[in-house]
Every structure is written in structure tokens, then in C-alpha cells.
Amino acid sequence: MEGGSGFNSVPPSNSFDKSRVLDVKPLRSLKPVFPNAPSTPPFVCAPPHGPFPSGFTPFYPFSTPQGSQASPDNQQNTTPVQMPMGPTPTPLRAFRSSQAPEFSGAFNGDTEPEVGGNEDGHVDGQKRAARNARGSNSSQKKTRKNQEPGSSRRAAPAPKGPSANFVVGISQIERDDGSRELVNHVLMTFDALRRRLSQIEDAKEQSTGIIKRPDLKASNILMSSGLRTNMKKRIGVVPGVEVGDIFFFRMELCVVGLHAQSMGGIDYMIVRGDTEEEPLAVSIVSSGGYDDDAEDRDVLIYSGQGGNFGKKDKQAADQKLERGNLALERSLRRTNDVRVIRGMKDSVNPTSKVYVYDGLYKIQESWIESKTGCNIFKYKFVRLPGQPGAFSVWKSIQKWKEGISSRVGLILPDLTSGAESTPVSLVNDVDEEKGPAYFTYFSTLKYSKSFNLAQPSFGCNCHNACQPGDHNCSCVTKNGGKFPYTSNGILVSRKPLIYECGPTCPCFPNCKNRVSQTGLKVHLEVFKTTDKGWGLRSWDPIRAGTFICEYAGEVIDKVKGKQGGEEGDNDEYVFDTARVYGSFKWNYEPGLLDEESSSESSEEYKLPSDLIISAKNVGNVSRFMNHSCSPNVFWQPVLYEHNSQSFLHIAFFAIRHIPPMTELTYDYGSAGSDEVGGNSALNKKKKCLCGSSNCRAYFG
DNA sequence: GAACCCTCATCTCG
DNA sequence: CCGAGATGAGGGTT
């Protein structure tokens, strides 16, 4: 693979290594910008193929015992996609007969079927509010009746009462129908709360060994505050949720309206036709509890629910054609789209799961299988064509990792030549360029002198790993008494400055307060973008708050002026904390918990002094991260000691959950206008290519 | 391993 | 008979 063109991969030497030479000019976001269309859902919901057969089919319950409804055995190896032996789709004439023109749109979200029952969630909201009140969270805003009795929400979409529709900034309409911004906001609030609750839990004495569920607590608070969106159930696309989006908790699916059941795998709604009501499936979660067949990328064999399979001390039984199973059956006949969420093991954190929204599917057939004498329903889901890859991307990555198929366009399997514990691949699948320009890989900062603090500084005295609740640990104290990371190493809050344990501290290297010093944890890839030169992305899913990498390079001494002489002027690889960075909010809102001082959770950086780093000649993966005006990564100053001297570092963390193969970006900020040389600062600005809806057009 | 939470279905009461 | 509220069942998750 590597013998080829361009450069030689020479064995790594531990000393100064100039061998990792990649000799092409760097390029970093310099092309003209074509702003993307606003973030509409990435695909249109087109009917999968051709016109459907019309007319009636005789009522076709597969509940009529297994007779002719073949088990897949006798058709297993035939082509899966076209015309199965399943029932003919019944057109949806029963609904909106007056104006349902074609079948196609009728059930895919264009026209909305009536929703029966569950007129709203307020009842539950109140119940929960009451429940919470007796618990410790008494501070939630009261859920009010935000809908007058008798006003159907469909009939009266406009906000009614003047102020009645706002709780924590989300209007009733927004709670019904979301948007990308809203979904992101809700998810970020959820996770910020969750992290904070974990932090509180971590800090408790071990004696209270009760396992708490911060995810449930967080969602509880959101739900009872009305901080959620897409509450209105719907078939098809959920506004603001995109194919490929990932989630780490079932509750996240709930609060954004992707899948309302907190546990159940099948979510459905009652749809009212002219004559009768029937349940139709809107979404399913396949998470491995049943033996679903998820080998194929576009096909999913899904098992019905119930029957006590896999549960201990419960008698297995036949599954019944009711609830979710019934809804799936009806959806098969109605051929409506069903959202599919695939859950799988999180490779980074094996005890938990990742859920990938894999877009819309249709149910193509169903049958009954027998397992240990009991009947199980099986449903064959087939993915609608034309949607962006989601689960399939995961499958590919899995193959790359197993070495079964190598990455297309792979130039180097590890451009760090072992300098990092996790390899970083170098890939170009868009053109012939063989790699970025020469630089030396180095995984941290090169300081020419120490970072002077007024007060002398020393590490802690812990002799094992520092404990979150330990007030004798000076490192914890320096962080305001709050451990900056959760037990699985996720950053809780942005802060003016984070104090980690350093080489001076006697605590073990596995101390949780050294997150930014432990090297890369996710498998990154430097890749050629189509219009921004080289960029950075990850093979692994990344949780919000995950440490990604630090900005490595040579610290520039301001006194000496511009290092590197003339070239300093157009050094594209400078990181400067003195730039102007737009403020943004990442932390939990203290009002949602019983916490007073919001000043304590300031997100403004406060540095002992400015830090300028150049990664032009020496650097790590960070130098490839491009700018975006709506980034998914932010930087955070981190301080730790070495030989009684403090050193400042810049650590990058994920703003939100980042699906695999999504480009990682952060906000480069802009040079202040007070820069020496007047308008030279302006000249240095570059056109932005981030394409986000709130793009500032220039950066740098 | 235990302690959870959301929705739907059904029941009760006015 | 209807709607509002209460209660129970169901389904896995972390």
C-alpha cells in the first residue's frame, strides 16, 4: 500500500524525525464560498419506486395462521428488494379521500393523518412535575396547561394566549415541530444537564452506592420544563433530525421526537381514517435485544415485541398481534415509511450503546418464526433509496478496522508513524494529491520557556487516582471543587481555565484528571476535502464533551516577535488565544438545576497570559482541523504543572455528538482590529467555506 | 443488578 | 355518553 508514489515511509525513529515528509503545499480554506442551502432535511421523501399497484387486496392479516404466508426459508436467497411475496400494499384511500391525489405523499408526511388519543402530553407533564416535586428537584418551572380546553391543536396552530406558549424559550409550536437549531439546542441542553448530574453523582461519597441514572434525571427535567421538540408524532421525516445523526441514550430519541418510547422498540400512532382507527408504526429501534438480522446495509429483519425472550425467570410465550406488532402489520399493508434507528455497541465505551438514525424504511413482508416452541413475528424492513449513508458508513468503517477492505484512497495507515497510540490515517479520495506539505509530527507543545504564573504552583498529593469528591486534593480545589471530567473522561463544563494533574502530581497516570494528556482516543483521519484542502474527521462516533486532541506545535515567544521571520506573516497554522472568539453557550443552564450562581459557570476564557502556537513546522492532527462558523469542536485552555512550573495547553472537545466521518471543525476566531499594522489584519482574513447558515463569510 | 420512565389502554368519576 | 383524571400494563435501558 505504501510502497507507492510520492513519499517514503521510513521506519519511525524516536529522535527528530524528518522522514515523515509529505511534500505538497498545504491548503486551508481558500476557495470561493458557495453557501449551502439552509439546512433542510437532506433528502426528499420520494416514493421509492414507481407507481404502486392499486386497488384492494383482500384483508390480509398475517395473523391468519402461518399457512401460505411463507416463512422466508423458501425465498431466502432470492433478490430481496423487488416484489416480495408479501401482501400487496393497500392504498391509503381511506384517509383524506377527498384530496389524496396519489398514494405517494399521503402517508409520508406531506399530509398529516389525524392523531387520535394523546391530544397532548400535558397530563403526563403534570404528573411528572408532581412526581418531581416530591423528589429533590423542586425547582422546575410548572408545566402549565398550555392549551385551552377544546381547541384542537391542529385547528388552531397559531399561538393563542399571549404568553401562554413559552416555557424556557420553546413555544408550543416549536414543541410540535422542530428544526435543526431546536433539535441541537435540546440535545445540548440534555447532555449538559446529564454531564452535570453525573458530576454531582461522582462527587458523592462511595457509601451511597445506589446507581443513579443521570440520563433519566436530565430528561425528566427537560420533559417537565417543556424543553423538547417534535412532540407531535408523525410518519416520516422528523424536522431537524438528519439521517446519520447519532445518540447515546434512548432518552435523547424521546426529547427530539425521533422515537417517543423510552424503552419500547416500536413507536406507533393511532391514525384515524374515515371509518376506523388503526395503529401505524412510525419508528423502530433495533438494538440487539432480539436476534434481529442486521447484516445487510439496507435490509433489516426485525423481530416483534413481547414474548419474554431473553428474559430470565419469565416464561417464554407466543408474541401477540397487538400494540407495536399490530402497528407494524398495519404499516406493512399501508406501506407507510417507518424510521429506523439502529443501536450498537459503542466501541469507545463498550458498556453503552450508540444509536444511529438510519433514515426511512418500508416494511416489505412479515412472517412468523418459531423459537423454542413459541411464535415470533418477523418483519423485513427495506431502506428507501436516495438517502445519505448512515448505518452503511458504520459497516464500512468496521470493515476498514478489521482490515477486510482497506479505505479507498488510503495513502498512509498512520501518518504519525506510531507517535500516537491510535493511528491516524491519511486519505485522499477526491484527487491525486499525495499528502499535505512537510511537517514534523509531534503530539504536544514545544515550550521554549515555562509559562510564568505569579504564584508558585504545585501538584496535588493524592497517592492513587484523584477522587472527584476529595476536597483535600489541591487539583480538585483549583477547579473550584468540581472535578472537570466525568468518570468516563467527558468534560462537564467549559471553564475559564481547567487545572489538570501534571507530571509533578504523585497520583497515578490513570487519574481521571489528566484527560487531555492521554493522547488520541478516537481513530482520526486526515483527508482531502473537496474545497478546503485537508481536513480532519473521525472513524469513531464522538460524544459531546469528548477530548479529541490538543493543539500541538511550537509556542511562539511574543517578546521575540514573529518566529520564523518573514514567513510568520502567512503562517496558516497559528493558534492564537488573543484572537476574538465569538462566545457560545455549552454549559447547562443553572436555572434547570437548583443551582444559584450562574456566574460560577462562566464560559469566558480567562488566561494567565496569551498563548500563540505555530504548527507550521511541528504539529499534530489539530493543524488539519478547518474553520467553521458553526463548528462541532471547541477549544479549552488547560493548565498543568511540570517541575513546579505551569504550562498552558489548548485542548479540543466535541461540542455535540459527532457521527463518524463528519468533518471536525472549530471556530478560528478573528484577529482583533487593534492588531498592529492596521488593515493588514483585514487582509489576512480568508473567505469562509463552512457553508453553515450563520456563516460570517470571513475568518482569520 | 436494581431502579428507573414514557406511552397507551382501561377504568372511575362527575 | 363524554371528558378528565387515575391507575396499570408493557417494554428494556444504563
Short summary of the structure?
The chain has helices spanning 103-106, 122-134, 172-176, 180-203, 214-225, 250-255, 323-334, 391-402, 474-478, 680-684; strands at 114-115, 166-167, 170-171, 246-247, 266-272, 277-286, 299-303, 338-345, 353-371, 374-383, 410-412, 424-427, 440-441, 445-446, 498-499, 524-528, 534-538, 547-550, 553-555, 574-576, 612-614, 618-619, 626-627, 633-642, 645-654, 665-666, 686-687, 698-699.
Jot down its keywords.
alpha+beta, DNA-binding, Beta-clip-like, methyltransferase, 10 helices, 700 residues, S-adenosyl-L-methionine, single chain, 14% helix, 8-stranded mixed sheet, 28 strands, disordered N terminus
Description:
- Helices cover 14% and strands 19% of the residues.
- The chain folds into two domains: 163-398, PUA domain-like (Roll); 406-674, Beta-clip-like.
- It contains ten helices and 28 strands.
- With 700 residues, the chain is α+β, with helices and mostly antiparallel strands.
- Strands 1, 4, 5, 6, 7, 8, 9 and 10 form an eight-stranded mixed sheet that branches. Strands 11-12-16-17 form a four-stranded mixed sheet, with no helix packed on it. A four-stranded mixed sheet has the order 14-19-21-20, with no helix packed on it.
- The longest helix is centred in the first third of the chain and has 24 residues, at 180-203.
- Strand 5 and strand 6 form a beta hairpin.
- It binds a DNA duplex (14 and 14 nucleotides) through helix 2, helix 5, helix 6 and strand 5.
